[in-house]
Specification:
- There is one protein chain.
- This protein is α/β, with parallel strands linked by helices.
- It has 2 domains: 2-121 and 295-324, Medium-chain alcohol dehydrogenases, catalytic domain (Quinone Oxidoreductase, Chain A, domain 1, Alpha-Beta Complex); 140-263, 3-Layer(aba) Sandwich (Rossmann fold), CATH 3.40.50.
- The chain contains 9 helices and 15 strands.
- Strands 3, 4, 5, 6, 7, 14 and 15 form a 7-stranded mixed β-sheet that branches. A 6-stranded parallel β-sheet has the order 10-9-8-11-12-13, with helices on both faces.
- α9 (305-313) links the parallel β14 (296-301) and β15.
- α2 crosses α3 and α2 (115-135) crosses α8 (273-288).
- The longest helix has 21 residues, at 115-135.
- It is globular, with a radius of gyration of 20 Å.
- The mean pLDDT is 96.
- InterPro entries: ADH-like_C, ADH-like_N, ER, GroES-like_sf, NAD(P)-bd_dom_sf, QOR-like, Quin_OxRdtase/zeta-crystal_CS.
- Keywords: NADP, Oxidoreductase.
- GO terms for molecular function: mRNA 3'-UTR AU-rich region binding; NADPH binding; quinone reductase (NADPH) activity; zinc ion binding.
- Residues 11-323 form the Enoyl reductase (ER) domain.
- This is Quinone oxidoreductase.
Length: 325
């Protein structure tokens, strides 16, 4: 038996229970891995609260990204062997010491990337990858707005977008978070608690506004995000940390400048093995080059996952947080 964190009923962080769980043995096409580091993400809280339905019902082991070592391979897995370092992104199952997982969702961790870095950046880093390279291909001269600039995705995306030549504007909630974001690629960071971010964006851009707005906040930043876009600009809603965006009439996109809007997901963009490998390679390459640095700002034991989620929801964390089995 090994330990895992499970949810038996939806609710607050207190429903996360650290207990014995049998990970099982790998079947055909599967691998048993021993986790060495596990990423913490806001997505994990959505499964805990029931905002996102559990794929196979309850009990549920949350957690969407981790790194570890191959312990055993199932029939037909010939490209991995015991001792290989691997990392992955899934929807659930990472809050565990060991797990069985389909081999085709794993990527090998290259030399020069630590297990902790890989666990800290797989979901957040590949999210940044599809946002800046595929949802909107950021190029020199672009002006972008990113909400929650001091969060895990924000600190990666800010560096990456700056590396690609964009002017990067962010929003954050405190002077400390503003300084952190500025140290990670953001040219301008607006304290949204003290200032109207729409007015600030208009002033910073001389009225030209932004080519794209990346918004993982949701309810609290809508429809203000639309007012930060130039005509035919792109609104990218990829999360809802403040709650879901209420239903709206599509005509608002016409009224505000023939805007585009999309609601992408990492799993939609990396649904195929080819997409997954390309996304991971782009991420590993930009980190290995030094253009993007992965800063792990908080570490918690896996047994304290409830405290980690409580701090995440209370906006007490910055950047990336990992759980250590």
């Amino acid at each position: 038996m090994s330990k895992a964190v499970r949810i038996h009923a939806h609710g607050g962080p207190e429903v996360l229970v650290y207990e014995d769980v049998d990970p099982g043995r790998p079947g055909p096409g599967e691998v048993l891995i021993r986790h060495t580091a596990i990423g913490l993400n806001f997505l994990d809280t959505y499964y805990r609260t029931g905002l996102y339905p559990a794929p196979a019902g309850l009990p549920l082991i949350p957690g969407g990204e981790a790194a570890g070592v191959v312990e055993e391979t199932g029939q037909g897995v010939d490209w991995l062997r015991k001792g290989d370092r691997v990392a992955y992104v899934t929807s659930i199952g990472a809050y565990s010491e060991e797990r069985v997982i389909p081999a085709d969702r794993l990527v090998k961790i290259p030399d020069g990337i630590s297990d902790e870095q890989a666990a800290a950046m797989m979901l957040k880093g590949m999210t940044a990858e599809y946002l800046v390279l595929r949802t909107h291909k950021v190029k020199p001269g672009d002006t972008i707005l990113y909400h929650a600039a001091a969060g895990g995705v924000g600190l990666i995306l800010g560096q990456w977008a700056k590396h690609l030549g964009a002017t990067v504007i962010g929003t954050a909630s405190s002077p400390e978070k503003i300084e952190l974001a500025k140290a990670h690629g953001f040219d301008h960071v607006i304290n949204y608690r003290e200032k109207d971010f729409v007015a600030e964006v208009k002033e910073l851009t001389g009225g030209k506004l932004c080519d794209v707005v990346y918004d993982s906040v949701g309810k609290d930043t809508f429809p203000g995000s639309l007012d930060c876009l130039r005509p035919r600009g792109l609104f990218v809603s990829f999360g809802q940390s403040s709650g879901p965006i209420p239903p709206f009439n599509l005509a608002i996109l016409a009224q505000k400048g023939s805007l585009y809007a999309t609601r992408p997901t990492l799993f939609g963009y990396n649904a195929t093995r080819e997409n997954l490998e390309a996304s991971a390679k782009a991420l590993f390459d930009v980190v290995a080059s030094g253009a993007v640095k992965i800063m792990i700002n908080q570490r918690y034991p896996l047994s304290e996952a409830s405290n980690a989620q409580r701090d995440l929801e209370g906006r007490k964390t910055t950047g990336t947080t990992i759980l250590i089995p």
